[in-house]
Write a sequence for this structure.
């Protein structure tokens, strides 16, 4: 199939994204996929949700259409809109319509960031109807047999103003993601950053110290992604304390006391 | 439950329109910071200040500032502030009293401890007698002064000025306004490098990051007369650290006040984390107890450094003992402590080698403080052969970061968790006799926020009872005495023997038919019991 024949060509995952399973999430996702059950991935930022979806898309041989949700996003940004060109107006499918029409995994990243009135457009796609009404175009898109919707959701950010409606939440199966166990996280840091296991273990220890401060001055602990950044700097010869300062401590907080406490925690390992 | 200001009209009605207006504006914060009883005391104190006849300013200041003091230090400090203000009335003007009250939240925030705040009020009392003209300019610069000095330092600075300018009032005013060279020079001399209140938050975060639980840190002022700070100590699970530290000049370089604070806090936290059983000091000589403490310090530091390798160098660089020090038992403790903490420290004396070998011999059992006990007893015997006098108060290892180890020997007493709990104004529940109940009770129908709740062992029926007791009328079943069960306290990482209270209500009395109706056998086993 040529690129022009396959409207999802750009969205195919051609190389295997490395993913280290931490529990039975791969098996569960495969079962959910076979039932075409919409899935919600819950967990703190930087713990591997997006990588997991990429890996599953590759494993299932499915294209992956990713949408980074934000509060300015409208329903048209998801389903599509009429555009003007030399010939007049033409309809342009949005990412959700594209995935539903041609059969892809559609991944709405941080869905809670989107406004609630935007989020409801996914409702008809996520129950037995499996259809997407394009009201402006007057078309009802019946979802392709391979279409599956996946959303990610960070419960740490939710508040009264920003939370998913129950009517949205209850359409999904959910997988909980957390920071991996110490040994697994060390293995991930080694693989992704190129540092040795001893250094990666120390980085994980620093992260554990910061995670102790979640809710006590820190909104979120140091993520696995941040550890990989710090490891990558160290692998390029940056001094460990400086690498931790740049990649772990400075990005996560502006509170001088917290920075000092975290810097001191770094020096208990490096 | 919030308290309504209008309920206390008889207490504040005479204060005048301005004070009443300020009171209305401050009431919401006051009712958040003070208990119902504290609120009444707050209003009574405002009224007493009003009755002094020193103008409206002290009253207005008190109404406005007392809630902030309560929020910083608790409501006992508000009562102390009111007492102090009343006592000052005979010796100074209403303006100065108002200034004392207006600056009290600053003092409370900078001192950070109720005892230090009380000491501050006493110091003001002394200063009013010795340098009455100096109090106002000093209070006007209090933020700067307490930003640079400890309470002890401030006291010495102020008393120096009071002595030097006892009769020269203009010079006194210039001194306390920091406008004379001698004032600035003495301030400079008394200035301490790092104040505890400035680093308390980051120390708490540091300890929480390491061990994932809360440690309570409080400042303590020991340098009232001398300039030496008091040693840290642990009491009732609270770590008391000096209120200020200077940078230390050490052979290995300069250690900042913050670094020393970190070493102190981490050492004390290591005691709290790794000491899990009591040691009995019974039958031990002072020398034996002190030697055991040296080993115990090394043991908890070893365990902490095993989890957090960076702590070992943090502590190690504060050791300065050398093989040349041998005049006192304290010198030997310093050398032994260094030998145990620093594998690279060379000390040829056999006693030091013996300390290391004893520690290694008990390394397998290092999880328990019995290891320290056995090693300490053995080494104390060798130390006694040096024939040096031992003074428990003076002979210690000389390490500024280590606490005085009272915690080791009071571990059993420290299990009085009720005393160790953070200060709260709890509702008192009392079971009283019938006559006391009838004669003394104030409000029969008070809500759940009453300061005290009295219960009777039996039901009480009103005079014209119509067969209904007070409890039935109020719709509350009398609760049994709460039963306490052990509970794991994750914040301090220990089990509280009387942690979880469980309250149960006995079933209401009723007829036999009612009780039979409510009990229906539902399973073969319960039917068997009934038979």
């Amino acid at each position: 199939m040529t690129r022009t024949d396959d409207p999802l060509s750009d969205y195919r995952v051609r190389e295997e994204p490395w993913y280290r399973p931490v529990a039975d999430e791969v098996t569960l996702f495969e079962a959910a996929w076979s039932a075409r059950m919409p899935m919600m991935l819950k967990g703190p930022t930087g713990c591997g949700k997006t990588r997991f979806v990429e890996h599953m898309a590759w494993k299932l041989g499915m294209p992956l259409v990713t949408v980074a949700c934000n509060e300015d996003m409208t329903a048209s940004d998801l389903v599509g809109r009429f555009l003007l060109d030399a010939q007049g107006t033409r309809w342009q499918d949005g990412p959700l319509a594209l995935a539903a029409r041609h059969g892809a995994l559609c991944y709405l990243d941080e869905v809670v960031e989107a406004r609630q009135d935007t989020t409801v457009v996914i409702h008809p796609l996520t129950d037995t109807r499996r259809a997407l009404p394009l009201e402006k175009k007057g078309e009802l898109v019946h979802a392709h047999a391979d279409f599956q919707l996946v959303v990610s959701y960070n419960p740490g950010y939710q508040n009264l103003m920003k939370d998913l409606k129950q009517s949205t939440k209850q359409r999904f199966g959910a997988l909980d993601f957390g920071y991996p166990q110490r040994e697994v996280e060390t293995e991930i840091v080694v693989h992704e950053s190129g540092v040795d296991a001893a250094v990666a273990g120390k980085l994980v220890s620093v992260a554990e110290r910061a995670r102790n401060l979640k809710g006590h001055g820190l909104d979120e602990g140091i993520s696995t992604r941040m550890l990989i950044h710090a490891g990558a700097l160290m692998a390029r010869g940056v001094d460990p304390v400086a690498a931790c300062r740049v990649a772990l401590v400075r990005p996560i907080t502006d509170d001088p006391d917290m920075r000092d406490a975290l810097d001191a925690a770094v020096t208990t390992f490096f | 439950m919030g308290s309504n200001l209008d309920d206390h009209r008889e207490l504040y009605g005479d204060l005048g329109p301005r004070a009443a207006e300020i009171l209305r504006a401050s009431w919401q914060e006051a009712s958040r910071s003070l208990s119902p009883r504290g609120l009444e005391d707050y209003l009574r104190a405002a009224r007493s200040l009003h009755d002094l006849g020193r103008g409206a300013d002290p009253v207005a200041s008190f109404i406005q500032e007392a809630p902030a003091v309560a929020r910083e230090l608790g409501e006992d400090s508000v009562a102390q502030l009111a007492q102090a203000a009343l006592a000052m009335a005979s010796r100074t003007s209403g303006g100065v009293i108002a200034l004392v009250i207006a600056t009290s939240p600053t003092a409370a925030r900078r001192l950070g401890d109720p005892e230090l705040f009380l000491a501050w009020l006493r110091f003001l009392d002394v200063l009013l007698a010795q340098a009455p003209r100096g109090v106002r300019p000093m209070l006007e610069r209090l933020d700067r002064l307490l930003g640079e000095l400890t309470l002890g330092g401030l006291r010495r600075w102020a008393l120096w000025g009071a002595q030097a300018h006892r009769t020269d009032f203009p010079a006194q005013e210039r001194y306390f306004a920091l406008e004379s060279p001698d004032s600035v020079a003495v301030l400079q001399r008394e200035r301490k490098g790092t104040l505890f209140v400035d680093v308390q938050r980051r120390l708490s975060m540091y300890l929480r990051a390491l061990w994932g639980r809360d440690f309570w840190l409080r400042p303590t002022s020991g340098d009232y007369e001398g300039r030496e700070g008091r040693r840290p100590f642990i009491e009732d699970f609270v770590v008391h650290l000096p209120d200020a530290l200077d940078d230390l000049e050490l052979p290995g370089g300069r250690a900042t006040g913050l670094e020393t604070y970190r070493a102190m806090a981490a050492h004390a936290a290591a005691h709290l984390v790794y000491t899990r059983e009591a040691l009995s000091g019974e039958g031990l000589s002072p020398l034996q107890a002190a030697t055991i403490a040296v080993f115990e310090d090394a043991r908890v530091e070893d365990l902490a450094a095993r989890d957090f390798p960076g702590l070992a160098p943090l502590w190690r660089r504060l050791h300065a003992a050398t093989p040349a020090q041998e005049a006192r038992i304290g010198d030997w403790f310093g050398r032994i402590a260094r030998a145990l903490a620093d594998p690279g420290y060379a000390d040829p004396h056999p006693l030091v080698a013996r300390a290391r070998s004893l520690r290694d011999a008990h390394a397998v059992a290092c999880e328990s403080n019995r290891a320290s006990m056995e090693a300490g007893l053995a080494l104390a015997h060798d130390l006694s052969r040096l024939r040096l006098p031992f003074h428990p108060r003076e002979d210690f290892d000389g390490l500024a970061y280590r606490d005085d180890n009272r915690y080791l020997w009071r571990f059993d007493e420290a299990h009085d968790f009720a005393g160790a709990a953070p200060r709260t104004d709890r509702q008192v529940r009392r079971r009283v006799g019938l006559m006391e109940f009838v004669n003394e009770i104030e409000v029969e129908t008070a809500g759940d926020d009453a300061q005290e709740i009295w219960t009777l062992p039996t039901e009480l029926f009103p005079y014209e009872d119509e067969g209904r007791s007070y409890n039935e009328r109020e719709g509350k079943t009398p609760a049994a005495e709460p039963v306490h069960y052990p509970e794991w306290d994750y914040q301090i990482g220990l089990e509280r023997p009387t942690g979880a209270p469980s309250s149960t209500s006995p079933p209401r009395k009723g007829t036999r038919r009612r009780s039979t109706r409510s009990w229906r056998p539902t399973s073969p086993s319960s039917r068997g019991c009934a038979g």
Summary: Strands of chain A lie at 39-42, 64-68, 80-85, 88-93, 105-109, 131-134, 139-142, 148-153, 173-176. Residues 215 and 221 of chain A are 9 Å apart (CA to CA). Residues 9-176 of chain A form a domain with the Rossmann fold fold (CATH 3.40.50.300).
